[in-house]
Amino acid sequence: MNWHKLKLSFALKLSIVFLTIIHPLNAMQYSEPEKAFKEAIKQYRLGLETNNKYKIANAQLEIGTFYYFQGEYNTAENYCWKAGINFQVIRMPKGLIKSLIVLGDVMRKEKNFEKAMEFYIAAKYLSINKTENSDISRIYNKIGDIFRHKKNYKKAEYYYEKSIEINKQSHSIVDLANDYANIGEVYRMQGKIDFANVYYNQGMDIAKIYNLPFNIAENGHGLACLDTLNKNYDVALERINYIQKIAEENKFREELKNIYHLKAAIYETQHKYFESMKIQKEYNALIDRLYATSTVQNSVQQNELFNLDLKNDELKKKNQTIRQLSLLQSWLFVALILLLMAVIYFFYISKIRKKEHQNLKMQTDLLQKANEALTEQEIELNQSNETRNKMLGMITHDVRSPLYDCLRLMEMFLEKNTDVNQMKKTGIQVISSLRGSTQLIDNLMFWSRTNANNLSAQLEIIDIASTLENEIKLLEILAESKLIKLSISIPQKTMVYADANMLRMIVRNLIMNAMKYTPKDGEIKLIAKRINGHTEIRVIDNGKGIDNEQIAHLFDYKKKKSIQGLSGENGSGLGLVLVKEFVEKNKGFISVKSAPNEGSEFRFTLNSI
C-alpha cells in the first residue's frame, strides 16, 4: 500500500477514535430493530390514547422504517406515506423529510430510480435551513446509491464523499458506517481493491464498536468479496460464516441472499460443486423458515397494527365531526353578524346616494344652463356610477333574501303548532341562502384585496383530497338542499404545489356557480386527475349551458353580463373573475367548454409534486 493509502487509513482510524470518545451512544439507535419496532407500536397506541399527532406520525415512520429493513416494501411505503401526511399537517418538516427519505429507499429497492430520485430531491429541497446536517448527509448517501446502481461511479463517489464529510463534522456514527460500506463498494466495483479494503474495515470497526448488526453484515460482505477476489477462500468463508449468523438473527433477507450466493460462488470457484448445491439448498430452507416465522410474526403484528389503524381512523372521524360542527356554528354566527352589518351599511349608503343624486341633478341643471360643454363630464360621471350601482344592487338583492328566510324561520319557531318537518326544510333553505351570502362576502373581500395588489399565493405541498375535505362536505349539504347530486372523484395522495385557501375558493366558486344553472335531479362532478406532469381538476354539470358570446366575456367583469340562475338567482359576476385570477396566481390555466342545453365543463390545472 503506498504512502497516500497509509495516510488515508490513519486518518479514518483517528476519526473513529474521536467519534468513540465524543458520542459513545449515538450509533445504538439501530442495534435492536425488534425492540425498536415494539417500542414504536407502544408509542402508536399511546399517541392514539392521548390524541398526540406527533407521537402517531413518529410511530408510523418507525414502523415503516422497520418493515423497510425487513424487505416488506409495500407495508413500509404505506406507513411512511401516512407519516409524511401527518408530519405535513402538524408542520413538522424534519419528520416529513425523514418520511420522504424512506419512501425514496423503498423506490430504490424496487429499482424505480427516477421515482426514488424525486423523493430524495424533495427531501433535499425541504432540508435547506430547516433540519440538521444528518438528514442532508443521508440524502447525499441515497443519491450516491442511485448513481452506483446505474454504474456512474464517479458521481456516486462524489456524493458519498460529501456525506462522509458532513457525518464526520456532526459525528453521525450509524450514517458514517453506512457511508464507508457504500464507498468501499464503489471502489470494489472499479477494481480499486486496496481503497475498498480501507473503507470496508473502517465501516466494520464502527459497526462492531456500536453493535450495529446491519452495518456489520454489509461491511463484512464487502470484505468477504475482497478476500474472494484475492483468492483467500478460507478467510472469506470464515468471514461469511460470521456475518451469516448475524444476518440470520436479525432476518436481513436481502443480505442473506447475497451471503449465500457469494458462498456458493466460492465453492464453485474451488470446483466443490456438491458443497455449492448444498449451500443453495440450505439457503432455500433458511428462506422458507424465515418466511414461515415472518408470516406468523407479521400476522400478529398486522392484526395489532390493523386494530390501531382502525382506532386511528375512528379518532380522525370524531375529530373531523367536532371540527365541522364547530366550524359550521362559527360560520353561521359570523354570517348573521355580517349580514346585519351589511344591511345597516347599505341602508346608510342608499340614503347618502339618494341625497347625492338629488344634489347632482340640481348641479347638472345649473351647469347645463351655464355651459353645454359640461354635458360630457356628466355622462362620464354617470358611467362610473353605473358600475358601482350595479354591484350594490346585486349584493343588496343577494343579502336580503337570506334575511327574510331567517325571519320566516324565527316566526315558525315561535308558533306553537309549527310542523317540525317544515321547520327543518326551511332551516336547510336558510343554510343554503346563508352559504350563498357568505360566498358573496368572501368574493367581495378577495376581489378588493386582489384589486389592491395585496393578495399573493402562498404555495406549498398539499394533498387535494384532504385540503378540500371540509369544503366538499359543506357543498354536499348545499347540493342536497337543491336536490342536486354532487359526485367527487379525487384520488388519495394527489399532491400539488399550490395555495390551499385559493384552491378552496376556486372549487367553491365553480361548484356553486354550477348549482345555479343545474336543474333538480341534475348532477355536478368534481374530478381530479394527473396528466403529463400536472394535475387537472374539472367541474362538470348537466345544466342549461353557456353560448359562445357569453363564454367570450365570462372572466371579464367589466364586459360580463349576469346570467339568471334556474331559481331566479342573480350573480355579482365576481366569482368566475376570482377563479381565473387565483388559477393564474397558482401557475395554472383555466378553460371552459359548453353549449346551450348541453351543460358546462370548467377545467383548470395545478403543478403536481
Q: What is the radius of gyration computed over CA atoms, rounded to a whole number of angstroms? A: 34 Å
Outline the low-pLDDT stretches. 1-29
Number of strands: 7
Biggest sheet statistics: 7 strands, mixed
Strand residue content? 5-15%
How many helix segments? 20
Helix fraction, binned, reads over 70%
**Oligomerization status of the protein chains:** single chain
Q: What is the string of SSEs from the N terminus onward?
A: HHHHHHHHHHHHHHHHEHEEHEEHHEE
- Distance from first to last alpha carbon: 49 Å
What does this structure look like?
By secondary structure, the chain is α+β, with helices and mostly antiparallel strands. Helix content is 73%, strand content 7%. The chain has 20 helices and 7 strands. It has helices at residues 3-22, 33-50, 53-69, 73-89, 93-109, 113-127, 133-149, 153-170, 173-189, 193-209, 213-229, 233-250, 253-269, 273-370, 375-414, 420-451, 464-481, 500-516, 548-552, 574-585, and strands at residues 460-463, 485-489, 495-498, 523-531, 534-541, 590-594, 600-608. Strands 1, 2, 3, 4, 5, 6 and 7 form a 7-stranded mixed sheet that branches. A hairpin with a 5-residue loop joins strand 6 (590-594) and strand 7.
